[in-house]
Specification:
Layout (H helix, E strand, L loop, with lengths): L3 H21 L2 H8 L3 H8 L2 H23 L8 H18 L1 H9 L8 H16 L7 H17 L8 H15 L1
Helix pairs in contact: 1-2, 1-4, 1-6, 2-3, 4-5, 5-8, 5-9, 7-8
Length: 178
């Protein structure tokens, strides 16, 4: 999508859909936040549903590209090296795509397909490839990783804990589990 007007509207819509949900984010507030009129929003997208779909598609593609960039096809020295690299990269991925992640979690019933399930499956395969342990349920392990990161990201600005220290301790704990 190269249209700058559409880009600004999609960016504003992502912020508001993530913050207020589909129902709470009105086309008027999205238009105002983007700096355009509601008439322009409807001229570009026709319906709120089309705008929501555009937000999902554009951000899903970005998230997929970002995810693909953290899947490193290399040999790791050990489980610690792998987990440290993976967890730090997942935290960065979460930071860079937090609004989209929040939107997909909060509006999962409006999203066709199951982005989260696909993401967990792909990540589980990657972890299994790099950590061989017959006693690990890789999907549950990945779900734990993602849950920790999501809760950590929710805490930004509230400072429930020192995030860098929490990540280090989480890596240490994860290594102990494998």
């Amino acid at each position: 999508m190269t249209d700058k007007t559409k880009q600004k509207i999609v960016g504003a819509a992502l912020e508001l859909f993530a913050e207020k949900g589909y129902k709470g984010a009105t086309t008027l507030t999205i238009a105002e936040k983007s700096g355009f009129s509601e008439k322009t929003l409807f001229r570009k997208f026709e319906t709120k549903k089309n705008l929501f779909s555009s937000v999902l598609i554009q951000n899903y593609e970005k998230m997929t590209e970002d995810f693909d960039s953290i899947i490193i096809d290399r040999e790791f020295e050990n489980s610690r090296d792998f987990l440290e690299t993976l967890i730090k990269n997942l935290v960065k991925l979460g930071e860079d795509n937090f609004e989209f992640i929040k939107l997909t979690v909060n509006e999962s019933n409006r999203i066709p397909g199951n982005f989260l399930e696909e993401f967990v499956n792909d990540l589980s395969e990657y972890v299994e490839k790099n950590i061989q342990n017959n006693e690990i349920d890789y999907r549950v392990f990945v779900f734990n990783l993602l849950s920790f990161i999501y809760l950590l990201l929710l805490d930004y600005g509230h400072v429930f804990m020192d995030h860098n220290d929490a990540v280090k301790k989480f890596i240490n704990n994860s290594v102990l589990c494998v």
